[in-house]
Design brief:
- There is one protein chain.
- The protein is of the alpha/beta class.
- The chain folds into 3 domains: about 240 residues, Rossmann fold (3-Layer(aba) Sandwich), CATH 3.40.50; about 55 residues, no CATH class; about 70 residues, no CATH class.
- About 50% of the residues lie in helices and about 10% in strands.
- The strands form 2 sheets. Strands 1, 2, 3, 6, 7 and 8 form a 6-stranded mixed β-sheet that branches.
- The model has no long low-confidence stretch (mean pLDDT about 95).
Length: about 400
């Protein structure tokens, strides 16, 4: 069976994701097995998932994905480089994925994406010097890297690629494959542009839909999100809402800034992933400016006041959540995912999973007893963070919920 991997978050699964799945099937065949690696409770943007992971998985399975594997949260809440590398590592460790597809704003320049990845996979002394100089000038890492690339390669197009979010991830995927030393053919695909709704806009609309009277939430979700979500994925989001497993947004976590001791401990906060180079101090120095009523507007204004060119808002959000989960900078330095936690599969995915049990180079987790195969210190830390992040996310729900440790695989 031909197989293709994708790295995505499906937060939520929208028409653009559906188009990507369609393009993969058109490129290979209707019988291609599609394996997705995804985040669970929190996302690479530094935000909580909009709705429970089981509903997101079911939506993806209903829309044509065959097998879904979790990216451990420590890698999700790190840089784009770490997120991409973890995704590639998991796909390769499955032993069954023969291709990678990704959407890119610059899919018409596949060779330039690969050339840029090759250049960044083995940074030259000149590049490192320019990057350091740009950072010292006050540029954030992304802008500093973009400027250094343009100067080193004398190619404005290469810099333009690093200005587009999906293309940045495309470069990181290609770079991770190069560094792995393992072959994985890649297929850049065009992004869906038939409507104006980004995933971020969809999340904003979902939060707006449920901000009023609870009994109006279902109707509002249907009215506001029908133009940008597929029927089955919207149905799954509404089911999650009715089960009190949606809608979760970042300001729901704001009260933890008062209840968690870490927000008063400068030394401990400075050890958290993403809090280095003065960001921990900015958080602590700005705590007194946080409005006590913790409204959504005040909370997001407060986060933006912490952000700078050096500390972009996405990094601020990731560092915030890393602190709430006590993820230290040392936890994931130079580490890789140490297990394949299966979140769901279709009938075709069940076949893929049976192959994977013979080919995988990491323990496959399908039931609680499988965790006994994870026994290294870093592997146990990754396992515990999967549980901790799921339980932290569930703690913001209005209704009762089961512990993350009891989560069942989704089968359709």
């Amino acid at each position: 069976m031909e197989t293709c991997g994708i790295i995505s978050e499906f937060n939520p699964f929208h028409r653009g994701h559906g188009e990507l799945i369609s393009q993969v099937r058109e490129k290979f065949s209707e019988r291609v097995g599609i394996v997705a690696v995804i985040s669970a409770s929190f996302t690479q943007r530094g935000e909580p998932a909009l709705y429970d992971i089981s509903h997101r998985v079911r939506a993806a399975l209903n829309e044509g994905v065959d097998l879904l594997i979790e990216i451990p949260p420590g890698f999700v809440l790190d840089s784009a480089e770490s997120f991409a590398e973890a995704g590639i590592n998991l796909l390769q460790a499955s032993g069954i994925v023969r291709n990678l597809a990704y959407g890119s704003e610059d899919n018409e320049f596949p060779e330039l994406i690969k050339d840029l990845a090759f250049f960044l996979a083995d940074e030259t002394a000149e590049f490192k010097l320019l990057l350091d100089q740009n950072i010292r000038r006050g540029l954030g890492y992304a802008a500093a890297r973009q400027a250094a690339v343009i100067e080193c390669l004398h190619d404005q197009r290469a810099g333009d690629i690093l200005a587009n979010s999906n293309s940045i991830l495309a470069v990181e995927y290609e770079k991770a494959i190069l560094r792995s030393g393992k072959d994985l053919p890649t297929h850049p695909l065009p992004l869906y542009r038939k409507d104006q709704f980004s995933a971020n806009k969809i999340r904003e609309l979902a939060a707006e839909a449920v901000s009023g009277k609870p009994e109006a939430g279902k109707a509002n979700l249907l009215r506001l999100l029908h133009p940008c979500m597929t029927t089955s994925s919207l149905s799954e989001l509404i089911s999650a809402y009715q089960a009190q497993e949606a809608v979760v947004v970042l300001h729901h976590f704001a009260p933890l800034l008062y209840s968690q001791p870490i927000w008063r401990d400068r030394k401990l906060l400075a050890s958290i992933q993403g809090m280095q180079n003065g960001l921990a101090e900015r958080f602590i120095n700005h705590l007194d400016k946080l409005d006590s009523n913790l409204s959504a507007e005040n909370f997001y204004d407060w986060l933006e006041s912490i952000a700078t060119r050096v500390f972009p808002l996405s990094r601020v959000r990731r560092a915030l959540l890393s602190a709430m989960l006590n993820i230290s900078q040392a936890d994931f330095q130079n580490s890789k995912p140490e297990f394949l936690r299966i979140l769901g599969f279709s009938k075709r995915g069940q076949t893929l999973l049976s192959y994977m049990k013979r080919t995988a180079t990491l323990p496959i987790i399908t039931r609680s007893s499988d965790w006994r195969r994870v026994n290294s210190e870093s592997g146990l830390r990754q396992k515990n963070l999967c549980f901790a992040s799921g339980n932290l996310w569930k703690s913001r729900l209005k209704g009762p919920h089961k512990l993350e440790e009891t989560r069942q695989i989704v089968r359709i």
